[in-house]
Structures are given as C-alpha cells and as structure tokens.
Amino acid sequence: MKKNADALISQLPGKKVPGQVRIRCRYKNLIDFAKVYGLSDPKYVGPEEDGIVACKAFANHFTVKALYKLLLGMKIEQDGKKRPFLINPAKLLHAGNKYDWKDCVDIKDGDSLTVTAEWGKVWLVEKNMILFAEFLVTVKNQNDELVCKPTVTAAVRPGGY
After folding, report:
1. Which of 31, 91, 123, 128 stands the most exposed, by the fewest C-beta atoms within 10 Å?
2. Domain assignments of the chain as residue spans, ordered by start
C-alpha cells in the first residue's frame, strides 16, 4: 500500500483528471434542493416562469457525484503498467468541500453544466494508511461561464488505492 501511495503522491498533483461530467439543471431539482434547506425566498423557490436561480447549496447536489464518476474511469501508470486509480471504489470517501464563488454566475433552470477537475495536494496519513487528495473542480455552464469552483477533498481507505 505504501508503494501505491508513494506513486500517487509523486505523479498526481497538478494533473488533470481525465474526462468531464455533464449535469442538467431542472426547475424541480432546484426547488426541491432549496426547500430541503428551508429557503422561502422566491429567488430560489418561485414560479418557473420567474426564472429562479439555484441556491448556493445546490452545488452539493452534483459536485461529489460528478467527481466520483470522473475518478471511476481514471487510470495511472505504476511500474510501467496501467492500473485503475481506484482499486476498490467502495473505499472512496467524501471528506469535505470548500466553495469559491468569485467570478461565478448563478445556476439557472435549464443550464447544462460541465464538471472538470485537476488534482491538488495528495498526502498519506501513515498511521491508518488513508490517502487524502484535494481536487480543484471547475463547473461551467453551456455558455462557458464559471458557475462554481469547489475544492473537494476525498479520502481513500486502505485497499482502495
């Protein structure tokens, strides 16, 4: 495991996560998510014809799921051979999100979002051999406008990497 962790720590930071995930934003999902948080502002829960926008918490609805999809197909090279990044996807854990809304536009009903990511810091907690990684995620709408820039932290338990 230590050998696998060292290989990942040395080669992943700063690299792009291959692929992209598309998310379609629908009025019902935006409304339902806002209601979960008890929001009553018509900006978030008004009639469809009023052109509501997503509450900021809506990013929780898709960021982790999109990143998980990106990581499932990712391959790395180790000892001259290609292997999956995730040996056992059941060992992948979500460890946190930080959101940056600077220079971002609101998410609206009908938007088609594209989620991409780049590896940030990668480190190992040797005591329990849990591998942590930060992913610098970029979410843009169909007009190539930035809607969200989350940093997602993931943890992979032993046997998963």
Report:
1. 128
2. 2-156
Within 10 angstroms of residue 90's Cβ, the number of other Cβ atoms is 9
Examine the pLDDT at 107 and tell me if it is beyond 90.
yes
* SS3 annotation, 27-60: HHHHHHHHHHCCCCCHHHHCCHHHCCECCHHHHH
Q: Are residues 8 and 76 in contact, defined by beta-carbon separation less than 8 angstroms?
A: yes
Distance CA 78, CA 45 (A): 49
- Specify the pLDDT at position 90: 95
Q: How confident is the model at residue 1 (pLDDT cuts 50, 70, 90)?
A: confident
Contact predicate 54/41, CB 8 Å: no
Q: What are phi and psi of 30, to 5 degrees?
A: -65, -45
Question: Shortest CA distance to 133 belongs to which of 116, 113, 118?
Answer: 118
2-156, superfamily in CATH? Answer: Hotdog Thioesterase (3.10.129.10)
Look up residue 84 and give its amino acid.
Answer: P
